[in-house]
Every structure is written in structure tokens, then in C-alpha cells.
Amino acid sequence: MDNCDSCNNLIYDEDYECYVCDMNLDEDDMVRFLQGNTAECPFYQSNDEYKIVRKQM
After folding, report:
1. What was the pLDDT predicted at 2?
2. Does residue 21 sit in helix, strand or coil?
3. Residues 11-28: tens digit of each pLDDT
4. What region does 17 belong to: left with phi over 0, alpha with psi -120 to 50, or beta?
5. SS3 content of the chain, % helix, strand, coil (to 5)
6. DSSP H or E stretch at residue 2
């Protein structure tokens, strides 16, 4: 699974009928995104709501 698939910033755009990143990417970030190098995305936010709870246990 790609990091983008589990990111809170990935939203469905009804105009384009596909999922898009909701962040305002600068040129360098956009190049990384288009090349598929999203492992180091500075805007990634996990949509795993229980991630914090697991750290507390």
C-alpha cells in the first residue's frame, strides 16, 4: 500500500472523479509526488486513529 492511500490529506475530488492530495504542494514536492516518491512526504498524516493509543499502552 502506498503512503498516500492511508493519508488524511487524500480526498475524493468530484470534479476529477478521483482521489487527490489536498495539500498545496510546492514545485519540489509536486515532482516527488508525481514520481511516486511519497515515502518522505512532509505532509503525510496517518488516518490510523488508534496509533496514539497504541503508544500509550
Report:
1. 64
2. strand
3. 999 999 998 888 888 888
4. left
5. 35, 20, 50
6. none
35, three cell numbers: 514520481
Whole-number average pLDDT of the chain: 79
pTM attached to this predicted model: 0.59
Give the up-direction half-sphere exposure of residue 36: CA atoms within 13 A in the CB hemisphere: 2
**Quick one: CA dihedral 30, 34, 40, 42, positive or negative?**
positive
SS3 category, 43: coil
3-class DSSP state for residue 26? coil
Q: Which is nearest to 29 in space by CA: 20, 38, 16?
A: 38
